[in-house]
Amino acid sequence: MYLATALRSHSLISQLEIPSEKNTILTNNSRIPNHIIHEVYYKTSRKVWAFNKNYRNVTFHTQTPVETSMNTENAIVTAIFNGISFSSEEESLIASKLEKISLKKGHLLLKAGKTVHHQYYVATGCLRTYFIDNSGKEHTVQFAIKDWWISDYTAFFSTEKAILNIESIQEATLYEISKENMDILFREVPVLESFFRKKMERAFANFQKRILANLAQPAKERYVSFLKMYPTIEQRVKNYHIASYLGITTESLSRIRKVLTQP
Hints:
By secondary structure, this protein is an alpha+beta fold. The chain is built from eight helices and eleven strands. The strands form three sheets. A four-stranded antiparallel sheet has the order 4-11-6-9. α1 crosses α2 and α2 (about 90-95) packs antiparallel against α4.
């Protein structure tokens, strides 16, 4: 039986039957004096009970130990900033600036006209940014899947209001970070400034390529380019989302797919 901390030695609890489960805090139910029991960590996902001949109803409450929580935070930081080595202090600082968010399908994360304070890392799920023109037509600007970042960056990096909407088109888990906290991390962990700069450079280059493609390429070639950029996304989004991204109708999209599947 592994103990992260130990029971204080005392005859009153020497016969307490401690179960073998881990990561549970042993707490006093007021029948045993506080000075007798110290925290004991086990690993379990349920409540268990223990008894001894002098005291009853000592409850073992499930609680995630500090070590496990820290390991989870470190894993998140490693996944988001893959390829960068951090000290333990840097990992803790970065983790403290990230906020986990869980979204249901159809949730509107950002609405046009709102102030934008955060950008978001996609851990699971799929989101899209879209613009609504004066006629009410939607234009999909970006999809974001696992390991992508998403926001209305025009508003995020300025004092302007959002012009884009961000919708979760699948259940999603995100990690958000504010502009203020990003600036703190850039000062305290300078390698992150280079990380985000390179991300922005690649994103700018891809957006420029897309603008040129929309100006010069036929719809079929734009669709092929879309599949290269998002190779696993077709089964996860609706046809009208893809058509909106490509700037074509759903009927045109169906015709293009039919042509591409012909031998």
